[in-house]
Amino acid sequence: MSSKQGGTRAAAAAGDSTPRATVAELRRVHPDAHCELDHGSPFQLLIATVLSAQTTDVLVNRVTPRLFERWPDASSLATASPEEAAAQLQSLGLGMYNQKGKNLVGLARLLVERHGGEVPRTLAELVALPGVGRKTANVVLGVAFGAPEGVVVDTHVQRLSQRLGWTRHTEPPEIERDLCALFPRGDWDLLSHTLIFHGRRVCFARKPACAACGVSDRCPSAFHADSVGRKAPRARSTAAPGPTTNAAARKATTTVAKAAGRVAPAARSKR
Question: What structural domains and CATH numbers belong to the chain?
Answer without folding.
Answer: 11-33+152-227 (1.10.1670.10), 42-145 (1.10.340.30)
